[in-house]
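Re: weekly structure request thread

Next one in the queue (417 aa):
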Amino acid sequence: AAKRRVLVCAPFPPRLDARHGGKAPAQLLLRLAIRNEVGLLCLRAPDDEGVDPAIAARCAVVREVSVRRPSRATARRAAWTLGLLRGLPPWATDCRSSEYATQLAQLLDEWRPEVVEIHLQAMAQYVDAAASRGIPSVLVDYDPPSAWAKELERRAGGLRRLARRAEGATWRRYERRTRPRFDAIVVFAERDVAAVAPSAGAASIVWIPLAVEVPPLPLDPVGVDPPAVLFVGGFKHPPNVDAALWLGTTLFPRVRVRVPGARLEIVGHEPTDDVRALAGADVSVRASVPDVTPYLDRAAVVVAPIRLGGSMRMKVLEALAAGKALVATPRAAESVEAVPGEHFLLARDDDEFVDMLVELLDDRERRRTLASSARAWAEEQLGWERGAEAFEQVYDAVRRRERPPPVAGRRPRSSEA
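Done, posted below.
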C-alpha cells in the first residue's frame, strides 16, 4: 500500500527511553515511521535530550524548535497567570512558541502532509494552521485535562483550590475552542471518551487501547531484600503528584508498621517540592533518573495508587510487561484487560491497598506467581502492532473525510476469544 504522509507535532522530543508517559507514544511513532512517511516537529527545552536516534533515522523530516521556560518559580507563576488571562492553561503557555508556529506553517506548505497529528491537548493551540489549509488533523490526547481537572480542584484546599478552579475553567474553555477544529480525537482509555465528548463538537472520538513494547526478558520477579515498594511517575502530571502524596503520607506508613523492614522508592521526572518532602529514613525520592529499569528490577512490589485522571497508565503496563508483582487502584487499571487476582492485585480502598502490599511483601512466592502470570499475559496481549494499524485506519478515514470507527485496535477479552 502507498505510504501515508503524516506530520506529527509534539511538545517534547520523542524518546524510547523517556522518563515520563511519552515513552509509549514514542514506541508507537517508531512503528508508524517504519510503515509510513512521517515528519516530526517538536519543541525542545534546554534540558531535554533530542529526538531518539532510532526514531529520527526513520522519519522523513525532523525539526526541533528550542523553547525556553522561566526557571524561577515566581517567573513561571507570572507567565502562567498571563497565559490564563489570554485563555491558555499553564501547560499550553509552556508550549506556546512563535518559532514553532512558523516552522509548522513552512512544513505544511513545503512538505505538504496528508494528515497532521498533534500530541496532547496543550499543543491543540496549533490546529488552526492545518484547518485553515484544509489538511485533516488528529489530536492524540493521552490524558485529557477534562478527565482530572475537576477532581484535582475538589481535593485542593484554601487558596490552592481557587487556583485549581481558575486553571480548570481555563482548560474547559480552551478545550471547547480547539477540539472541534480537529477531524478526529484519539484517546487511550474508555473513560476518556465521555470526558472529551462534551467539547469535541463534530470531531470523531476514537478509543485505541494503550500498549507498550514487551522487553525481551523479564526482570527479577521477587526483588531484593529488604523489600521495596516502587512508584514511578512523571510529576509534571498532577494525578501522579496526588498518587505519590497519598502513598507516602497515608498508605506506606501503615505498611511500615506491619512490615518494619520495608522501604518506599518514588522515582520520577521533576518531582514537586511536596513530593521531595516525602524523603526520609525509609522513603527515597529519585528525580529524573536516566533509566528506571534498575529500580523496577530490585523492587518487591510495584504500585499504581492513581485516584485521578483517565488514560495513559503506562506504569501499569510496563510493570506487567517486566514481570513484576503489581498493586493498582481501579482508576490506574481502567481499560487494562489483565485479570485482577491473576495478573495483578486490585485495591479499591486504603485498607485493601495496605493489606495487599503487606501480603506481597511478606510472601516471596506469591510475588513470583503473580509476576510470572503478568509476564505471560503481556507477551500474549501487549505490543504496538495492532495500535499502529488502528492509527492507520484513523489516517485513512480522515483523508477520505469519513468518520473512523469509535473503537480501534482492541484485543478481545479472554471470554470473547
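Confidence is low (pLDDT under 50) at residues 412-417. The chain is about 40% helix and 15% strand.
Next request, please.
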